[in-house]
Design brief:
Rossmann fold; 2 domains; six-stranded mixed β-sheet; 10 strands; alpha/beta; binds adenosine-5'-triphosphate
């Protein structure tokens, strides 16, 4: 479904991704784990067209994304819930969700908004609230809800559990599992490697911009090197 072949991505003179090759099949949950600065967010930003690879290619369902503007990439079915959530903090929950559907012209936007509010009852309670005044967990739910409003075929999730209390982390991961069961393919970037590997069909380990390991989530959970470096020994 999503095929990333040998991409090299730079910020000026700094190389953030080095010959990265990753693929995601339809229906999968694929996790990217790695330490701070490994290049995880850069990878997602490159897929969604916010950064361009200097070399290498990205194709989605056989279509080359390399020169596609970001809004066309959303239209093709790729939606990004960014790190730090990046919700519009001066707008209400309602307005944020509406903006998530900005590329759509069909009549089902209201129906989908209801579905998001059913999935995240807390967002229904806070519907008119200024989103900047919500808690971290609520803002994370809003970021995912907003990403769902474009009806993605693949959802790119950047650190959805960052800074959340353990019970909320469990809730977020359960929602990711539910979305996947309902047919949404997921590419998730996480520092919480344990949780991410538990739910991932497959995963890649990124170190200083390069893929150093890839396997099933289960195999990586049992891998001594991964245990030592990412799972607390
Ligand atoms: P974290 O989990 O800490 O967010 P990450 O794995 O997502 O880390 P990236 O944010 O992708 O890592 O950063 C990869 C590398 O690129 C880092 O060395 C970072 O300092 C560098 N980098 C990221 N954004 C920029 C930028 N706008 N300008 C220059 N360098 C950047």
């Amino acid at each position: 479904m999503l095929d990333i072949q040998g991409i090299n991505v730079f910020y000026g003179a700094i190389q953030a991704l080095n010959d990265v090759t990753i693929n995601v099949q339809s229906g999968e949950i694929v996790a990217i784990i790695g330490s701070n600065g490994a290049g995880k967010s850069t990878l997602l930003r490159t897929i969604s067209g916010l950064l361009r690879p200097r070399t290498g290619s990205i194709t989605f369902k056989g279509r080359d994304l390399t020169d596609c503007p970001a809004h066309d990439i959303v239209k093709m079915g790729i939606s990004h819930s960014p790190e730090g959530r990046r919700i519009f903090t001066n707008m209400s929950v309602h307005e944020n969700l509406q903006l998530g559907a900005f590329i759509r012209k069909d009549a089902d936007v209201d129906k989908d908004m209801e579905a998001v509010l059913d999935r995240f009852p807390r967002l229904r309670e806070r519907f008119k609230q200024n989103s900047g005044t919500m808690s971290g967990g609520e803002q994370q739910m809003l970021a995912i809800g907003r990403a769902l409003m474009s009806r993605p075929q693949i959802l790119l999730l950047d650190e959805p559990s960052l800074g959340l209390a353990p019970n909320l982390v469990t809730e977020i991961f359960n929602i990711v599992l539910d979305l996947n069961k309902e047919g949404c393919t997921i590419l998730i970037v996480e520092q919480n490697a344990n949780r991410a590997l538990e739910i991932a069909h497959r995963a890649y380990v990124l170190e200083t911009g390069s893929v150093v390991l890839s396997d099933t989530g289960k195999a990586l959970l049992a891998n001594p090197k991964v245990k030592e470096a990412y799972l607390g020994g």
